[in-house]
Amino acid sequence: MSLPIESFDHWFTTHPPKLAFKGSTQDDFESWHQQLYTRLYEMSGLTRMEDWQCEPQVESVLQEDRDDHTMELLNITTAPNYTMPVAVLRPKGNGPFVPMVALHGHGRGYVDVLGDYDDKTGEKKVAQHNYAYATEAVKQSYIVFAPDKRGFGTRAGDGSQCVDLTTAAIAMGISLIGIHTWDNMRMIDYLQTRDDVKPGPVGCIGLSGGGGGTLWLAAMDDRIGAAVISGHLANYANGLFAHICNVVPNVLEWADRSDIAGLIAPRPLFIESASEDECFSRERAVSAYEKLCNIYVAADARNKLDIEYFEGRHEWSGRMAWPWLKRWLITD
């Protein structure tokens, strides 16, 4: 029996995105890149958010010693009347250190990617998704910035904030993923002012919704010098966005996820896809990756794109991603 969401199949097959990449040369890539970047920057609401530009104000909330690193909790002003909580994990020893942004997905906020928990539910979630990649990153000698995005963690508030915030954003003609991207861009503004941060490219990693945040941040901000998208790169099918906060109004008229990821080219990009991912299927991930390869070939950057297909469910792997990140970010 056909389900209501499956009734959109005909639309998907007869209305391909207008800016899906169809070229083969570097000139094709550069022309397409500019068109799609401009379109998505505006559609996501980032153009309108430029009115939010303000001087970042930073308040230190907590400092804590954690064996081989220190943790500082900050509140960073990213827009008028809004501050974003950020956990900063700093290796011990002399800096400066290569910066890494670690984005969380749906769940408890940055405590997930720190691997922190205070009950069995939190412990199970961290273990199930191999979630503590922010803590793993600081062990790899990165200085790590792990924010709580709006609607989650310490900024969850009451009710279903993901739905409420998305609905409000769409009503204003912007998007929640655009707002998250804006906040993360302002966090990069801040981290680049720190003496313990090495000047140069910033890394970005994320699983699930964190992979979606990585996708958009790296696509919209070329200060991201290398990115790992885990459990998220899968082209849309049957209307499967997985979560409403991934929605940008009218996005499918112009681009699929592989096209958005193609905006990261020619910068290094690594993809992780689990065999039994219940949110972003292997079949859709393979389709997206094949299209993404074509974009990287045209950008003359095929050596900067790679993927790990691993056995597992909706989880972070890191087995190939960590040495791959080191190759591109740790140059000394």
In short:
The chain has helices at 9-14, 26-43, 46-49, 110-114, 120-129, 133-139, 161-171, 176-191, 209-220, 257-262, 282-298, 321-329; strands spanning 58-66, 69-79, 82-91, 99-103, 143-147, 202-207, 224-230, 269-274, 305-310. By secondary structure, it is of the alpha/beta class. The protein has a 9-stranded mixed β-sheet, sandwiched between helices.
Structure, explained:
With 332 residues, the chain is of the alpha/beta class. The protein is built from 12 helices and 9 strands. It has helices at 9-14, 26-43, 46-49, 110-114, 120-129, 133-139, 161-171, 176-191, 209-220, 257-262, 282-298, 321-329; strands at 58-66, 69-79, 82-91, 99-103, 143-147, 202-207, 224-230, 269-274, 305-310. The protein has a 9-stranded mixed sheet, with helices on both faces.
Give the biggest beta sheet: 9 strands, mixed
Quaternary structure annotation: single chain
Structural category is alpha/beta
Shape summary:
globular
What's the number of domains? 1
On the 0 to 100 scale, the average pLDDT is 91
Number of strands: 9
CATH class division: Alpha Beta
Helical segment count: 12
CATH topology: Rossmann fold
**Which CATH architecture would you pick?**
3-Layer(aba) Sandwich
According to CATH, the homologous superfamily is Alpha/Beta hydrolase fold, catalytic domain
Give the % helix: 25-40%
